[in-house]
Design brief:
Layout lengths: L12 H20 L7 H7 L4 H13 L3 E4 L4 E4 L1 H11 L2 H18 L2 E8 L2 E8 L15 E3 L4 H7 L4 H7 L17 H14 L2 E4 L6 E9 L5 E10 L5 H21 L17
Helix pairs in contact: 2-3, 5-9
């Protein structure tokens, strides 16, 4: 008896679509792993794509804002949509679940409030908070609170590792930077200098910009692509911690951030990146 006509089709469309999706993701991953935009030929070679295919994929991704083209440099970099997708992942439960026991351990070790935060547009949003009993500041941020990123140590810890294109997406030239107590007096050149200083130290430090008398030390958390996806911090009364104690806090925070990064399959890259410069 002949087989019924309901046999599985041999349509190759699903395979073709999967291959196209794989190529798009290859381009996205390649650009995400770089510190600066790349020419189309370099992208095509790294992703093993024909030149015409690479241009077609980049054109489609550009329309959807997943990549940005810089005509003066003839190079391609990540677009705002890619940044937004990354930010959405940062707010997901896996990062919070992996980070919670680490910041719990940090808070217990240093006896200070510990936070896990992510970048959300021009703000940072706090995902988790651990507060030990005793002397820790009462003026700390609750989970879900958003604060201007450039005024916080957690924000600077993330910002100091973004590319120029990503920083331009976070801080468009026409958008003023909010100063302390809501004043529009914070200059971009100040942020540029502070980010450079943070990168040189390897961690971010903020004293009294959000709450007078309260300081914060933060270190970045990296994904397996070496992208700064979050930051871990400790918050403390400025008068209670002198220079040597702050150095110990910075070491503990950096160790906690490194531990969370490694749980995300991060490997410390070789070499150093060029200093960041913001667009005025």
């Amino acid at each position: 008896m002949p087989e019924s006509s309901g046999a599985a089709p041999t349509d190759s469309a699903p395979i073709s679509n999967a291959k196209s999706a794989d190529r798009v993701l290859s381009v996205l991953v390649y650009l995400a792993g770089r510190t600066r935009p790349a020419p189309a030929m370099a992208i095509a070679k790294a992703c093993e794509l024909p030149k015409s295919t690479a241009y077609h994929i980049l054109g489609v991704m550009r329309k959807r804002n997943f990549v940005t083209y810089y005509p003066n440099e003839r190079r391609w970099g990540l677009g705002l949509a890619a940044f937004e997708v990354g930010s959405a992942y940062l707010r997901s439960e896996p990062l919070e679940r992996l980070g919670r026991p680490i910041i719990q351990g940090l808070a217990g070790e240093v006896n200070e409030v510990s936070h896990l935060a992510v970048l959300h547009g021009g703000d940072v949003m706090y995902l988790s908070r651990e507060r030990p009993d005793g002397r820790s500041p009462s003026l700390v941020f609750d989970v879900g609170v958003r604060v201007p990123a450039h005024l916080t140590a957690v924000g600077r810890a993330i910002l100091m590792h973004l590319t120029q294109a990503q920083l331009r997406a976070v801080y468009p030239a026409e958008k003023p930077l909010t100063g302390r107590l809501g004043q529009n007096s914070y200059l971009r050149c100040h942020l540029e200098a502070e980010l450079a200083e943070c990168r040189q130290r390897g961690y971010a430090y903020e004293d009294g910009l959000i709450t007078p008398g309260v300081s914060c030390i933060a270190a970045p958390v990296f994904s397996y692509e070496n992208y700064p996806i979050a930051a871990i911090s400790v918050t403390f009364f400025s008068a209670h911690r002198g220079g040597p104690q702050r150095a110990l806090l910075a070491e503990a925070v950096s160790d906690a951030a490194r531990s969370l990064s490694k749980s995300l399959a991060w490997r410390e890259p070789e070499g150093e990146e060029e200093p960041l410069r913001l667009v005025s």
